[in-house]
Amino acid sequence: MPALPARLLNGNLRMSDFHPAKRRTLKLAATSLVLPAIAACGGSAEAAAPADVEAAIARFAALAPDTASCLVRAEPAVSGATAWSAGYHPDRQLFVGSAVKTFILAQFLRDAEAGRDGVSESLACEVSDTFRSPGSPVFLGLTGKTPYRNALEAMIAHSDNTGTDIALAAVGPDRVRALIAEAGLAQTRIPDSTRKLFSYLAGAESGVDLGWDGMVKIDNGEDLGLKSRTDVINDKQAMLSTATEMVNWYRQSLAGKYFTQPATLTEYKRIQATADAVWMAVPAGVQGFGKGGSIDWENFHCLCFAGQMLAAAVPVTFCLTLNWNDGQLSTERTGEFIRAAADVLGEAAKAARV
After folding, report:
1. What is one GO biological process annotated to this record (predicted)?
2. Residue 170 and residue 119 in contact, taking contact as beta carbons nearer than 8 Å
3. I need a labelling partner for 93 at 20 to 30 A (CA). Which of 107, 127, 249, 292 fits?
4. Is 297 helix (H, G, I), strand (E, B) or coil?
C-alpha cells in the first residue's frame, strides 16, 4: 500500500489523532454533480419549509450530491407557527461515525437509573489496555481507576474511543441495540466496540478484538497479515444511521421518552451539550445538544453532526451527513462541512424564531 496519510475514527469534528501510516487507495468513477430538488419531509400538518432553509440545505448537499443526507425539523412554536421540516435524501443509510455514541450514553444512564448490576456514574471503572485506543485524547496515557462519569464525558465531549469502549462494555452492545430497536430505528447500527470495528475493517473476523498491540500496529501501518476491508458500510461492524432516524431519536430522547427520572434527562442533556460540534456549528447564544462523527478508512470518508437546538424555545432537530470516496480526508474538509452545517442551522434558527 502506498504511504499516504489517513485518519481512522474520530467522533468529534476536531478529528482524531488515531491515524494509520498507510492506506489503500482505490479509484472510483466520478459521480454526477446534478443536484436533485430539496424535498419537504413533513406531512400535511406541517408548513412548507422556509426558502432560506431549503437554499442552505441545497448548499450543504452540493458538497457530496450522491452521498449526502440532511434533515431539519422545527416543532410548533408557542406563537402559533406550524411545524416544518426540510431535507435532502433523509432516508439514506450512511456511515455516521461517533454520532452513534448518543445511544451508548442513553443506555448507560438508563441502567444507572434502574440500578442494574450496581452501574452508576460514580462507580469506578478500569482504564487499561483492555479498552485503550490510539489517539484517545483523554485516556491514552492514563492507567488506573476513574468514575464512569469521566468515561461518559470523554466519550461525548472529546469522542474518546477508550472512554467509549469502557462505557459500552459496562452496558453491553446488545442492550444498546435493544434501545435502538425500542426507538424504532431499523437502519441504525453500532459495532460491538470501536476496537472491534477497526479490527474488522483491518481484516479480522467480526467480533474479534485485535487488542492494544493490534491497534498500535494499525495506527503505525504495520503488516498484520490480514487483508484490509473497504466495505465501511456493512452489516457486521459499523456505525450507521439515517438522518430521519437520528432526528427521531433526538426528538424522543431529549423529550425524556426513555428516562423515568427528570434528573436522568438533565444529565443526558448536560453531557450531550459538551460535544464540540455543538459550539462549532450551532448559532451563538442558542442552546444545543448533539454529537459529531467522522472516519477516514482506506478511500472512504465521513463527516456527520446530529442533535437538537432550542431557537427561541422552539426545538429544531437536525442531522447532516456526508460520505464520500477518494479525494480529501475528513480532516481536510472539516472547515467546509462546519461552514455548511452552520449555514443550515443558522437559517433554521432564524426561521424558528419567527
Report:
1. response to antibiotic
2. yes
3. 107
4. strand
